[in-house]
Fold this sequence. Notes:
CATH class of the largest domain: Mainly Beta
Oligomer: single chain
Low-confidence stretches: none
Largest sheet: 10 strands, antiparallel
Bound molecules: alpha-D-galactopyranose
Distance between the termini: 36 Å
Strand content: 25-35%
Amino acid sequence: MIEISKDKTFHLRGKSYSYVMRVDGSGYLEHVYFGARVGEDDLSYLNAPSFLSFSPIPPDAYDPAFSLDHTPQEYASFGQGDFRTPSVLARRADGDVASRFRYLSHAVGDEEGESCLPKARGGETLAVTLKDALSGVTVCLRYTVYEDCDVLVRSAEIVNGGEEPVRLERAYSFSVDLPAGEYDVLRLHGRHLAERAYERTPLGHGTVRICSTRGASSHQMNPFLALLSRNADEDGGECFGFTLLYSGSYALEAEKSQTDAVRVQGGVGDTAFSWTLGAGERFTAPQAALIYSASGLGTLSREAHDFLRRHVIPVQSANRPIVVNNWEATYFDFDRQKLLALIGEAADLGIDTFVLDDGWFGKRDGDASGLGDWSVSTQKLEGGLKPLIDACKRRGMKFGLWFEPEMVSEDSDLFRAHPDWAVGKADVPRCKSRNQYVLDFTRPEIVDHVYARMAEILAANEISYVKWDMNRHITEFFSPALPAERMGEFSHRYILGVYTLAKRLRERFPQVFFEGCSGGGGRFDAGMLAYFPQIWTSDDTDAAERAKIQWATSFVYPISAMSCHVSACPNHQTGRVTPLSTRAALASLGPTGYELDLGKLSDGEKGEVRKQIAAYRETEALIMEGDLYRLSDPFRETVFAEMVVSKDKKSAYLVGMTMRAVPADFNRRIRLKGLDENRAYHVRELGLTLHGSTLMRAGLLLPKQQEYESWTWHLES
Ligand code: GLA
């Protein structure tokens, strides 16, 4: 709900938060309040002008003590006395970068034009336009509120309303100034095979900046940052989450000022970034989602999950495919016979989709060649894809295919024909990573080429699933097609090219289910989720590692988006041996699948897999739509445990795993969460019927288990 008073105070109400801003006596758009719902009162007293030495007074100050240096802002200017980090830097032809953005107009329901930038659906939008008196540049700040989740979506659109070109050196999506206080900052850092570990540290003075300069959101630092009150934990305390609907280089910053107030802002990363706006031209910054919880991290996550599932992730079929993927089963070493055998085994076990991973195209017997040559290798696959697809169809299965659209190998026909299509300069040696180069997706003709190649394959074959991979990052950030003064636009233009391709393919092939991937979870972000309903969570399929990765990924992303496979043991990444039941239990906490040579399973194991698949289908609705509760932290405790509860609280599903065996550790209790305290639940595996109040307060006894064993509990009422 959006309320606007005559004196231009804007009160945005989400499901349970209030977000208030006002136009002050000088015309600046001040941030006033973001937190749990408040009444319809005049809150302007919260921003009393206060004199502070060395805080400059702008020429148009409405009060002699007014300074932008410590007045909370909605989008911060530079060069008018606010010495904190600005939200926008627009350099004019004479070199001046100072700006004085003040209120110009507002509108309810203002819609952005059509673009390929990921965009949240629904909600009610307020647009407030500010104008820089010094340059004529305007910024349209958009705010979207939702009745069904505590998320505020923000974005900024910058238009050069002046005569001269301006050069944006920073153009963030949002900025918000939270009041003075003691906060912790939480972030998700990692690396390939170990994505999204969480780190929580007190926010001291100065700036905590998380970012990626890799041209992708990255394994190294996920675009999510949360500010937590010091006392916040899973179940209590105030929490603010910030994420971007964006998959390229980004920055998110939390800056604690001299008065202990905290500015949080972010958007497209400003390292080596610039964007030239000719007269009348516009730059649209990606959307940011601000998530609010008055009751801990658990609620923050559930609000984020509901928002992403209802307003961002495309809605396709209710049932996700249960796949067998041949990557860890064969790597590059396959032929038609091997794949037919795998399809046969998969069909016998009740798996419904076969996904052919890397190695089916061009000359691709290893990772040093073939990328870019998207035509089926009939030398490797006699008869092409058809015999495989026919075999799938005969057994009632569907067929999926791996692509890495953005890449090219040096040893490929595509590169031999177009050496200048790779990012960088053709006459200067370029960095290789996984032996490959990145295609210059800032150039529409290259995106068109890849689209045509992929569309040809998707149109000629019955393909219901595409795994879209990206296995290196950008290093050179140079395109011969961009004029020198626009080279700072490379990174953002690249990701716009990626979104354009994804959009075109999805529109042309609505029946195809897309899974995102980037060396596992290297591009696990809300931008990709706007195109791909699920993402391969990590190349690390070890159950103990996955417990941690899936746990921290769920701080912001729903488990319905985390693609999880059962793989072989000893695990290929860690060498660890875990029971098949544990691997399946962890993989049941997301769209599930198998990624191992099914032919090597014993008859007993095959029987187990059949049961796992039936059990997964039984809980799938909970995984897709339920509320997630984290019970026991695998990073810090000896046990991992998570549960999902249906929205109507009638059923629940819990998965636990012993991360570290401790001798003589018995009668330890685990308290369940999220249940209806007055309802009686039957815990199938224990044969117990207990009230929600008992399960949540007295708890249940942890099973006695060896290291890496797991358990599942199904609760029905
Ligand atoms: C990446 C993916 C894997 C697999 C390989 C193929 O690493 O994350 O799942 O597809 O590429 O090369």
